[in-house]
Design brief:
By secondary structure, this protein is an alpha/beta fold. The chain is 51% helix and 14% strand. Helix 1 links the parallel strand 1 and strand 2.
């Protein structure tokens, strides 16, 4: 099984580590638009070699998009434009409805399996990759009726090889649940950190006085805003409902 991973940060890199270790991938190649990150991923042995997305489509059985949701739509269309029926494509995006809608009419829609592993940390980049990140977590697969059965089965097999629990949802249901159990936590953490920084002009005073409660609550504010801002934007309808409830 040859697997290609596009995006070699926390999720893509951790995926690479475990898919090599558990034997699911007999060959593992990767690509990242940040060349320094790509080289670092290679040095850390998150992937065996670097390969362009175009080349992945030629000889990979499975191609995985582990990039910010703001970039998934564009890359997904390009991949589907050049995909053969032999390749399976999935993504790790934290929103699903908007992504699925963007390629609904594509003639190769059946090659794509929308998914989301509910796992992560507040860190980013290849150096953040860790083994066993996905163990015991839930992987969501959406809108299986629009994907070929063998391709859904392959993505299921990948997640089970990571010791994840596989669940199935409609995209809109997924986005609402994700807003409640994940997205609102990040918003709250970002707002808390920014509020404190705005009022406490001295960072030294914050960290001298802050107890474990503040550190725990603000931990997620270390997460990449470049990744989370597009998630909030794409899932804004569900998030507005959740924020109303929260307020």
């Amino acid at each position: 099984m040859k697997v290609g991973i596009i995006g070699l940060g926390l999720i893509g890199g951790s995926l690479g580590l475990d898919l090599q270790a558990n034997g699911f991938a007999t060959q593992l190649v990767g690509w990242d638009r940040n060349e320094a990150h790509a080289q670092q991923a290679l040095e850390l042995q998150l992937v065996e070699e670097l390969q362009t997305p175009e080349n992945m489509l030629q000889d990979c059985d499975l191609v995985i998009l582990a990039i910010p949701v703001s970039a998934i739509k564009g890359y997904l269309v390009k991949l589907l434009d050049h995909a053969s029926d032999a390749v399976t494509i999935t993504d790790m995006g934290s929103t699903k409805a908007s992504i699925i809608t963007s390629i609904k009419a594509h003639p190769k829609r059946h090659c794509y399996v929308p998914s989301h592993p509910m796992a992560g940390t507040e860190f980013s980049g290849p150096s953040a990759a860790i083994p066993h990140l996905f163990v015991g977590k839930v992987a969501i697969i959406c809108r299986t009726s629009e994907s070929k059965k063998d391709k859904v089965a392959l993505v299921e097999k990948m997640y089970r090889s990571l010791y994840m629990r596989v669940r199935y949802m409609e995209a809109e249901e997924h986005d609402l649940h994700a807003a409640y159990v994940s997205h609102i936590s990040h918003i709250s953490s970002f707002v808390l950190a920014n509020t404190v920084l705005d009022k406490e002009k001295s960072e030294r005073a914050i960290f001298d006085l802050a107890s474990g409660g503040f550190a725990s609550t603000a931990r997620l504010a270390k997460s990449s805003p470049e990744m989370w801002a597009p998630i909030f934007n794409q899932n804004k309808e569900a998030l507005l409902e959740v924020l109303d409830t929260y307020v």
